[in-house]
Description:
Blueprint: E1 2-4, E2 19-23, H1 28-44, E3 49-54, H2 57-64, E4 71-74, H3 79-86, E5 93-96, H4 103-111, E6 117-120, E7 131-133, H5 141-153, H6 171-178, E8 185-189, H7 201-209, E9 215-219, H8 225-232, E10 238-239, H9 247-254, E11 259-263, H10 266-273, E12 278-282, H11 286-291, E13 299-303, H12 314-332
Helix pairs in contact: 1-5, 1-10, 9-10
Amino acid sequence: MSCNRNDRPNRTFNGPLRSVVILARECFGDAIMLTPLIAALKKRHPETSIYVVAFRQIIFDFFSSDRNVTAVYHAKRDLKRYFLEFWPKRHDVLFNSKDHKSTSFLMQSRLVRARYRVGYRNNGNEQLFDHLLDMPAGTHESQRNLALLQEIDGRMPETPRPYIPEMPVSQAVGDLLGKMPRDSYVGINISVGTPGGHRTFEQWSDLIRNFPGERFVIFSSPGDIEAKRKLEAPHPNVLATPSTRNLYEVWKIVDRLKLLVTPDTSLVHVAACSDKPLVALYRFNPSDSRLFAPLSTLQEVLVSPTEDVVDIDNAVAAYAVRSMLERHSLQNHA
């Protein structure tokens, strides 16, 4: 559903659609949830150029690897390239994917030379935009992004599966993939970027001990590598794995799992790229639980009674993992 700018009530997009500029949000999960839109754009409009403006280096690097994207520009670095190469161009559509007020995003919404600007209602400067997307509460982020195509084409596309752009794979990770049989390991992600998202070493160890017949691999961010090594060391059914250097390496490992267990992080969406079974641990935050819900077909979402996933009971977590393993086994033998 959409609502147009008040002073131009009948403003609609009229082609041609030669170029689209997307202002990309700052987190990996948000970037992954933009890929269905980019894939759908490329499918419907294969000749259209897609430009991404990034506000963090990790997002710049992510989309720089995406073959569906024509070019990526950093809004805060390499400004010489931005102003000499990107800014003089005129574009057909600009999409501000931020659904709340952001000075940086609104500044780019002004700077980019686009004849048709699309943003979300309540973004803090609605008069800038030709169309305001007014989405029902709880609409998943991937569907919110795809609403751009509904504004352009008049119909909502089928939702493509999200993806991770191809990036280099190290020799160490390549060797690991060569010795990991598909659907034989359970992955545990111990890292999270938000307060209240971490489980304790004892909680993860207890989960591993509850499944002596399963084999595990541990994922962590670079900052948690010591915690990863500490968790790998005492458990004979945990395979020590090399550090990953990019999100594509993470996905290549996730793609070989039978199940992923993770707090509410980007790995929830990495699992969706392969439709991997998932046990997701969420803090009590009803809005996030809907907007950023898992997309895997087989999933179990455990919501903490508090704003800290440490308060999800160990027995509840173990039951969810056991149930998901049984469902995965039944699916494979169906």
